[in-house]
Design goal:
about 220 residues, alpha/beta, Rossmann fold, four-stranded parallel sheet, two-stranded antiparallel sheet, 6 helices
């Protein structure tokens, strides 16, 4: 992939600068398999969109479901997971992708409907625990009207399905119990650690198996 051609995909959030022995960030600011840039066209790739469960927390790349998909399907995976990501932000990414490319497949890992995106700050908020540096007025409104936020995100999810269902292979799943009646829920079999509640090795394998099965039905 040419960096200049895909500048629309650049991730400018703070987490895009994080890199350690387990997490490698490529030249566009997304978690990858250690390469400075995705080598194959996005049109031949599986694009993952989600929050930190998709990003895969602090797991080594070989333990992520992105890696398992690459190995099982012999196809490049573009991981657009962003920590704290919300349904609204995922919808934004899906619109951006649709305007610029046609991936081979898209996998959406929906987060809690009680999360939201601040368009004016490019930050995230969540009702279930305190997040610093958010727009306090917006947070207070959602805190007082949680039913509004849930209905809004329900609409976002339905809109996303309509956007993609006829144009590419689409697989949806969630980790959120609040969305278990709307799409397939991946039940957490393990976690990284007691401190890091993100999916562990077993759960990532479960997620990969589900995606592989669903994609096999869409060929």
């Amino acid at each position: 992939m040419d960096i200049e051609k895909h500048e629309w995909l650049r991730n400018r959030s703070r987490h895009a600068l994080r890199s350690n022995e387990f997490v490698f960030i490529n030249q566009l600011g997304w978690r990858s398999n250690g390469e400075p840039m995705w080598t194959k066209p996005i049109e031949e790739s599986i694009v993952l969109v989600g929050c930190s469960q998709t990003y895969a927390g602090t797991l080594p790349y070989k333990d992520t479901f992105a890696y398992h998909l690459e190995q099982s399907l012999d196809r490049q995976v573009i991981n657009l997971g962003r920590p704290m990501g919300s349904p609204e932000w995922i919808w934004k990414m899906l619109v951006d992708i649709k305007q610029n490319a046609k991936p081979w497949a898209i996998v959406i890992n929906w987060p809690s409907p009680f999360r939201y995106y601040e368009w004016h700050t490019d930050r995230f908020g969540v009702l279930t625990f305190d997040v610093l540096q958010r727009d306090q007025a917006l947070y207070q409104f959602y805190l007082e009207h949680p039913e509004f936020l849930q209905k809004y995100n329900d609409y976002i999810i339905k809109s996303s399905r309509l956007m993609w269902q006829e144009h590419t292979r689409l697989v949806e799943m969630t980790w959120s119990i609040d969305l278990s009646d709307q799409t397939h829920m991946i039940h957490q079999a393990d976690s990284v650690s007691t401190q890091d509640k993100h999916w562990g090795v077993k759960t990532n394998k479960l997620a990969a198996s589900y995606i592989i099965d669903q994609l096999s039905r869409k060929v």
